[in-house]
Amino acid sequence: MPKVAVLDMQGKEVGSVELSDAIFGIEPNANVMHDVVKNYLANQRQGTQSALTRSEVSGGGKKPWRQKGTGHARQGSTRAPQWTHGGIVFAPKPRSYRYTLNKKVKRLAMKSAFSVKVQDNNLIVLDAIQLDEFKTKTIVTMLNALGADKKALIVLPEVNEKVIRSANNIPGVKTTQVNTLNVYDMLHADKLIVLKDAVSKIEEVYA
Question: What is the pTM of this model?
Answer without folding.
Answer: 0.82
